[in-house]
Amino acid sequence: SVTVSKGTTYYRYRNPKADKDIALGKNRAAAIVAANHANSILLTRTDLVRKIVGTTMTLEALCAKWLTVVERNVAGFSKSAISEKKTMMTKVKNWNPHLELAEFSVLRINEFLDWIYEPEENDEGSPSARNKARSQLTQMMQYAIKKGFLEVYRNPCELTDPVSRKRHTYEGWNKILDHEECPHWLRCAMNICLATLQRRGDVLNIPMPSSSDTHITVIQKKTEKHSNAGYLKIEITDSLREIIKECRDGLVSPFLIHRIPLNRKAKEGEKDFTKISPKYLSDEFKRIRDLVNPYP
User: Residue 217 to residues 112, 115, 126: CA-CA distances in angstroms?
Assistant: First the structure.
């Protein structure tokens, strides 16, 4: 476009993707060269695709196709994996549902991930939410590439970097453990996690051993479906036996880690009302961590 001010002609370029006007100065020839170069980058590929197929797929349309695949679950996704995939798709549609898939470049993918969590600019969101979205988005984009919806040689999500998460320190962990509002069952769970080095979900499924048992049984859910290596027997050492004693609080429960809930009724799919869900454990741990603020 052209504007005239005090007898001088100025040239501007309107970026159709960012919907912004950019000043190109007074040199008409240089402005035309720059505008043509910008058009070749921003428009040519998309326009060629439109000529061939009429239109290109949007992120919203890709999400709809991927959702069908996820819900049919031929690949045998776990319930938590399905939930994470649906959460990612909801975020994509809230961010920019009409963005064409051909324009979903590394730059735009990073913009989407920054929209979820950008540690350099704000404290909203979390590294975990960003990394989960990146992981699930990578799978959806791989599906698009295999189906031919996206013509690229490499998944653009793989060119982005995950955000590093802060690791707990010994001092910070103990501050959370020793806080007055930390419930007894959470202390037990934290100690069992440290003693056995198992995931939260696997720890919550450990059956209560008898006083004569020499081992505790752990079934690693993430490994179980792939091999027999997911079935473990961990020796009850003297230090582990002391932790197990702390877990025995007089409440009859089939689980080593348990609590008395406000609603004494087992949730759907659970066998016992004393069982603690992984989400509840994480929520309670986060609540105590925020109260302690061990890493200001």
Answer: 42, 42, 33
As averages over each run of 10 residues, the pLDDT of the chain (296 residues) reads 72 65 76 69 53 67 93 85 91 90 87 80 70 92 90 86 78 88 90 86 85 82 62 83 86 84 61 81 88 80
Task: Give the whole-angstrom CA distance, residue 222 versus residue 112.
Answer: 29
pTM for this entry: 0.55
Residue 255: phi and psi, rounded to 5, are -110, 145
Q: Are 205 and 215 in contact (CB under 8 A)?
A: no
What 247-251 contacts at long range (C-beta under 8 Å, 24+ apart), as own/partner pairs, is 247/188, 247/192, 247/208, 248/208, 249/184
Q: Are 231 and 224 in contact (CB under 8 A)?
A: yes
Amino acid residing at 129: A
C-alpha 122/C-alpha 36 separation (Å) is 37
Residue 239 CA: distances (Å) to CA of 132, 189, 246: 35, 15, 11
Name residue 23's beta-bridge partners.
12
The radius of gyration of the chain's CA atoms, rounded to the nearest angstrom, is 27
Looking only at the bridges linking them, the beta strands covering 231-235 and 8-15 are: unpaired
How far, in Å, CA of 80 to CA of 86, rounded? 10
